[in-house]
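Consider the following input, taken from an annotated entry for G-protein coupled receptors family 1 profile domain-containing protein (Adineta ricciae).
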Amino acid sequence: MASLAGTNFTIYLDYIQVQMNRYLSPTIFIFGVIGNTLNCIVLGQPTLRSNPCALLFLVSSFVDLISILVGLPTRILAGWNLDPTAAITWICRFRAFVVFTTRTIAAWLIMFATVDRWLLSSVDIHRRQLSSIKNIRTQILVTFVLSIAVYAHMLYCYEANLNDQPLQCYGKSEQCRFATDMIYALVTIVIPLIGMMTFGLMTIVNVRRAQRRAHPDLRATSDVNHHSRRVNNQLLRMLFVQVLFLIVLCVPQAIQKFYSTVRPFGAGSTDEDAVKTLLYNIELLLAFIASGMPFYIYTLFGETIFRKEFIHVIEKIRKKRMGMVRTIDRTHCRT
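Applying the prediction step yields:
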């Protein structure tokens, strides 16, 4: 009876996992692709991309879009037993490498955004001068190169057709799994999050210090300075909310990675492995939610800066479409 109950429990957990892949994954995919695409369009406007922090948001949204486009379709297909990464090794390796690399890039770019806000909020003019497009582009390039180098081993380590791991596309040896888990937990999650929290708190200290030092009569009153402060304050708010969501969504992944090194898959009972597999798949979806959420955060907390630019983009598209319709109508009338 105990064995039968355990079997039923495992089947039930497998059923939950399949339903998540079938119905939750497509929802995350649709909202993630739409959100990141709109982010790239809005943040790519000249009024925003000239801001160092906005440029980091732009590139982060672009790599998040790649992560979702490459990573989520196979999760959706897995719900129907059609996942090609489960059987074809080169697809397995390519998907794992792209997803892990883009997640790392996105996390570090958001961390650099908190560094940029800290530099800009400093009373030291030399620190404020370090917040520049040139420095941001250098950081982006270095982040891309190092992230690719850190996960290059996955092009060798990952293997398809594995039946004793949470996924059939997984690390083929204990050494590979340990290296990937530790790199992902530390480099992709823990270190960037610590950086985000540290520089975020330092930014808050700088802002409060500047408010105490500034006398109302001596504050800048020009429209240009007022607009610049408003843009920076709203970018800071958008950044802090995004960091908060990243902490909530990504910390469980880091805990799982550390736990898996202490008690790997296969070390316990069948029921325990079934629970681990379900939790692993939930954490995969949480990571994709983290990649798909920025647009909705920016829209809700960007107030005038992001929402105004978004509406402006929509209006430009509408006018361009109306112009095309008029041109077609005039051409039709002439013929």
